[in-house]
């Protein structure tokens, strides 16, 4: 083949090859263009969104600019206020300096005051101790004064006059110290019974229950009243001092009376045995067993506790006087008693021994009260 045909053939082959190649490339380019168009479309969409955002930001910027301008105005106003505050601060600093100086002065005064207070506190404590001592002394003195005053009042209340005492001396000069002067000549009973009856009569005399007419006239002429009236009023004073009422239980009455006797009457022996009337024992503030018994029986009877005076004897042939009360018991306190003393002339019922020289707590003393055996007894009668 000649060169021209070969060249033409070659160009034809090359043309076909190039055409195929370009077809492929064209396809790829179209695909790329499509892809870029899609990308451009997406970017346009993004640009549109960004434009919206930019518009929002622009509005926000405008708002912020407005806020900034308002803030600037506030800053300007606040600057004025700051200036005012700075001026006020300077004034307050000056005031503070003055107050600090005043504080320092007050601190010094406080220190001095605390020192004075400490000194005053020490003086106060010393004075308080002195006051407590004085107050205690005052209380003790006042208590002693009240006690002395009560003792004086009681002394005046118990005191009997010479005229009444002379009446009892006059009575005993005729009837005997124990009322048994004429016993041997006129009595058919034992001397013990005669004496216990005289003891009871002394108690009943002071209770305004009996009297001796033969011995009463002279006293009435001297005083204008009877001896038993004078004695009765004295017992009334003592009764009011005891602060008892009719509604009190019998054991309460006995308890208070025995306490009174133990606090105000002391035991004292006699050279010659003499029976004292109740107001005599109160006036002397002393007596022996028969005097205690006569007084206690009179006070029991005054407060409606049925009583008797009894004379007793123990195994050592010693004699003693006590009181008997017609009661069922002494409340919570122990006691010695007789179930029946009708053989001794007393009414039926339980008769409890009362030792008037002891308080109610000791009425069950076996060694002392239990040793005494009854000889005679005589009841106080209305």
Structural account:
This protein has about 375 residues and is α+β, with helices and mostly antiparallel strands. The protein folds into two domains: about 1-130, no CATH class; about 160-380, C8orf32 fold. It is about 65% helix and about 10% strand. It is built from nine helices and seven strands; from the N terminus they run αααααααβαβαβββββ. Strands 5-6-4-3-7 form a five-stranded antiparallel β-sheet, with helices on one face. A two-stranded parallel sheet has the order 1-2. A hairpin with a 5-residue loop joins strand 3 (about 305-315) and strand 4. Helix 2 (about 160-175) packs antiparallel against helix 5, helix 4 (about 190-205) packs across helix 9 and helix 8 (about 280-285) crosses helix 9. The radius of gyration is 64 Å and the shape is elongated. The chain starts with a helix and ends with a strand.
**Strand order in the largest sheet:** 5-6-4-3-7
Q: How many separate domains? A: 2
Structure summary, number of beta strands: 7
* CATH fold title of the largest domain: C8orf32 fold
Estimated structural class? alpha+beta
How does CATH name the architecture of the largest domain? Roll
Uncertain stretches of 5 or more adjacent residues: none
Query: What is the mean pLDDT?
Result: 87
Radius of gyration: 64 Å
CATH class assignment of the largest domain: Alpha Beta
- Work out the helix count: 9
